[in-house]
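Re: the request from the purification team.
They wanted to know what the chain is likely to look like in 3D before they choose a buffer screen. I agreed to run a prediction and write the result into the notebook, where they can find it.
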Amino acid sequence: MKLKYLLIVNNNIDEIVTIFKEDTPIAKINEHIKSFLHDNEWLQECTDKFDSIQKERKENGFDSTPFYVMKNFLMEYHDTFVNLVETELEK
């Protein structure tokens, strides 16, 4: 069985680890990150900066999908580390 682990960490919060099944669409994972942004009152700030971050990432040849834009926003503006790790459980 394969799993995806979403890790969110910064100095002010405990590590947040959310486990998703392998076939979980990235849109659902993005919704989880949006919920985190909302809970920390950063969603509006992220929304305001989203287009400029996305444009900059595209221009620099980086992945500019919503997951990476939100990840970049959190790292750049709130010193928050976000990572999505895929792993396989052994029987």
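For the purification team: The longest strand covers residues 2-10.
Please add any questions underneath this entry.
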